[in-house]
Amino acid sequence: MNLRYRYRNVSEPNVVSEGFKEFQMNFVDTLTHFPVSLFLIGLYILKIYRKQTAHLSPFLSFHILMYASVIINIYTISMKPGISVFLNVLLFWILTLFYLFNYIILSHIFIDLFVVVFQVTNVYFKTCDIHITRRNIKCVLIVVLIVFRLVFLSDYLVLSISDWEINLDFSNGSIHLINILLLIILIIQWKISGIHQKDSFILINSIIMLLLITIFQVITIFKHVLKYNSDLPLSFDKFIYNVYYFPYLWIISVYICNFKTVQTWIQNQRKRTSITAVVPESLIVVRPQRIDETVVSNLSVSELETVM
């Protein structure tokens, strides 16, 4: 097995968009995966029907991404290039979001893990007199991730096993690996010093999301290795995951986090910190005698208890 880094030439197809036109034309054939999405959406609707929307609040950003994904998917599959410049520009950006949805999900997980692992709350630069809140730090991370994506837009990894090769997007692979490392660090921190209750949701959701995304990627790799014969080209896999699976995986986390045993575990979580209590050997007590007179006495702790 060999893994090497390559830069895409202009004549070579882009890893993230390769096979999209065929996927768009044969979209109906991919509807065999729709029952999975329908099942997860049903679980989501069930929470709303039972008026348990509070269970969704720890996953608000993934909640928003799900709705955004549905809109993007519908527009991407149904719309064709328009005559006006505005429609063409709009289609370009929507297609870009569609291609990079996997990267968006992985980036979201990265930001959550980064903030929790490094306990980023507020940052103050004394020399510049700049104070950055936790929300602004997340915005900075988003900008960094966008720049990272643009810098390595044409880079990819080639995984070779004997006479077989598969091209993997470099940015997705890098963020995925970093997320796994951050998750391992967070688990170690939890074992050593505990974790805050609100961060427990991030821990559980990150484990579930990364585990499932990794499984999907491994399935695709094994399909290539085993030369799996399917009615759909293997290049469709990344689009199938973006449409039918990735937007709804967080719903699984919602249910797992609200199991009775898991809820008990979350409520028992505390961030353990070392606290040193210092008890003075003597206290200075000021005891007024008269309005114009004050007596200062040095008493030990035991004597103080007797006086009190």
Could you give a quick summary of the protein structure above?
With 308 residues, the chain is an alpha+beta fold. The chain is built from twelve helices and seven strands.
Keywords summarizing the entry:
308 residues; two-stranded antiparallel ribbon; 3-stranded antiparallel beta sheet; 14% strand; globular; 12 helices; alpha+beta; disordered C terminus
Describe this structure in words.
The model is unreliable at 274-297 and 301-308 (pLDDT under 50). The protein is of the alpha+beta class. The chain has a three-stranded antiparallel beta sheet. The longest helix is centred in the C-terminal third of the chain and has 29 residues, at 197-225. The chain folds into two domains: 2-267; 279-308, no CATH class. It is built from twelve helices and seven strands.
Biggest sheet descriptor: 3 strands, antiparallel
Multimeric organization = single chain
Reading side by side through the largest sheet, how are the strands ordered?
1-4-5
Q: What spatial form do the alpha-carbon principal axes imply?
A: globular
Task: State the helicity in percent bands.
Answer: 55-70%
What's the pLDDT, averaged over the residues?
Answer: 82
What's the N-to-C terminus distance?
Answer: 78 Å
Keywords: Membrane, Transmembrane, Transmembrane helix
